[in-house]
Amino acid sequence: MKVKRYIGNDPQETMLKIKSELGSNAVILHSRKIKKPGIFGFMKKPLIEMVAAIEENKEKQEKDALRGRIGLSGTNAVHSEGNKIDLLQNQVGNIENLLNNVLNKIGYSQDDKEDSQETLYKKYHDLLVLNDIEPELADRILAIVRKQVSFAEGHEEAILKTIRIVVREYLETPETIGDSFEKNKVVVFVGPTGVGKTTTLAKLAAKLSITKGKRVGVITSDTYRIAAVEQLKIYSEILSIPIRIVYEPTEIAEAIEAFSDRDIILVDTAGRNHKNEEQLKEIKALLENIKDPEIFLVMSATTGNRDMASIVKYYQFIQSYKIIFTKLDEAVTVGNILNAKLQTGKKLSYITTGQSVPDDLEIAHPDKLANMIVGEIHE
Length: 379
Ligand SMILES: Nc1nc2c(ncn2[C@@H]2O[C@H](COP(=O)(O)OP(=O)(O)O)[C@@H](O)[C@H]2O)c(=O)[nH]1
Ligand SMILES: [Mg+2]
Hints:
The protein has 379 residues and is an alpha/beta fold. It folds into three domains: 2-109, no CATH class; 113-171; 185-363, P-loop containing nucleotide triphosphate hydrolases (Rossmann fold), CATH 3.40.50.300. The protein contains 13 helices and eleven strands. The chain has helices at residues 11-22, 56-69, 81-105, 112-130, 135-148, 156-171, 197-211, 226-239, 252-258, 277-288, 305-314, 335-344, 366-375, and strands at residues 2-8, 27-34, 47-54, 185-190, 216-220, 243-245, 264-268, 294-300, 322-326, 347-352, 361-363. The strands form two sheets. It has an eight-stranded mixed β-sheet with strand order 6-5-7-4-8-9-10-11, with helices on both faces. Strands 1-3-2 form a three-stranded antiparallel β-sheet. Helix 11 (305-314) packs parallel to helix 12. The radius of gyration is 33 Å and the shape is rod-shaped. The model is unreliable at 67-79 (pLDDT under 50). Bound molecules: guanosine-5'-diphosphate and magnesium ion. Guanosine-5'-diphosphate binds next to helix 7. It holds the Pfam family SRP54.
């Protein structure tokens, strides 16, 4: 008697290995589910181990029969077509019986594969939601993943990889200020108080003037706090960039005019209480007084989804803007970036990752963000 151990991803695969080596008369002595080795082994689907045996002479008979079926040699090779079909039917019947016995024995029903995939999809849905992605959006992502990942390759790696691709596609290619623009380009930063508008403006001013050699001018309309003006004045002095202060929305056109020698003019605004209607009128008036402004909505990645939704709603009067996300260094989860991206339909541009001017500023690359969103699933 020959006894051998076989391992496969599921009972069908293990049985196939046994059948191809020992033939359909093999007897299953023992079967069990085993865990894959490695760090993530505990997260993976168990493997199926089977110990099979066959009488040596039965093995020989099987091999002869097999040879006969493929017309190799021996007396079996002259089977008539009818005999061949009978033989085949018998064998299929044997295998079916054998397989059902084994499956029943180890409690692994035909639906188990689908069930284990369902468990995986549920797990990733929950983890996306845990990472602050809105449940409906997690549903949408996984619906696409289901269509992309075929049943045969429905294992964990394929699902995870596809989730990452879908998230990356949703995040889209970022749009930044870029290098090629007309002289006198005006860029305005809007957003709630304390998210990092002034700091981000200083980072960009430094990059544009030092790295790209542009002539930069800075205007601030944030005159509510003396400290706010002082903060920007200090940055301007360090960077040797001229600064102008506007006290009324109507003064902005004049300030821009005075900067006609500048390649780019960065406009800082006061932090807005996004629930205040008066302040809304003021920011509208300011923007109306600027010809073709490029607007950046600055939001913090530490903002929860409900607050974020209300901020986005507040600024929906602006037709065209790009999004900057700040404080990624402080955010525990970053799924809200994807929510905001899809809620607004606007392009992402930059992310900031700390207080350091100008270093902690990056382009919002979708690969990196998708890894931050999906990568956290591993932890
Ligand atoms: N941790 C962290 N802090 C930041 C970041 N960007 C800005 N800040 C800090 O957030 C605070 C408010 O920034 P500020 O630029 O004055 O915000 P504004 O009111 O929107 O103009 C300051 O203490 C900044 O140093 C960032 O990316 N990460
Ligand atoms: Mg400010």
